[in-house]
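Hi support team,

I submitted a single chain yesterday and got back a structure, but I'm not sure I'm reading the C-alpha cell output correctly. Could someone confirm the output below corresponds to the sequence I sent? I've pasted both exactly as they appear in my results page.

Thanks,
R.
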Amino acid sequence: MKAIEFNEVNLRIAENQDEYQTLPVHKHGDDVGTVTACFELDDGEIEQVKSYGTIWLSFLTFGRSFQPVGMSCLSPFGVDGYECPHKPEHLCAMRNPCVECAHFKNAISGGRVVAVK
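Hi R., thanks for writing in. Yes, this is the structure output for that exact sequence:
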C-alpha cells in the first residue's frame, strides 16, 4: 500500500526527509485540523482485502494521546465531478464522507443505495 498524489494535495509531509516516505495530503484548514491522504493498493493487497475483508491500521503515538481517525473507500472531494454540498461537516472522523448525501450515494452506486461501513 502506498500513498499517492491526488488533485487536492496542498501539503507533502516529510518531503526531503530520507528516513521517511513523503506523504502527500490535503490540509483542510478547518478548526479540528483535518488532513486527508489517499493510499493505493497493489493487486496482492486487493486480493487480501477481498479474502479477509479487513485492513489494519497502525500508528506511532510516541506516548501521546491517540487522535480520532476515519477511513473510507470514498473520496471526501467527490466522485466524477460531483462535490457534496454538505462539506465540510461530512469530513468527520466519526462517519464516512458524504454517506448522508443521496446525490453522492447515487453517483457512486449507479442509482442503488449502498451501505458504507
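A quick pointer for reading it: Residues 72-117 form one domain. Let us know if anything else looks off.

Best,
Support desk
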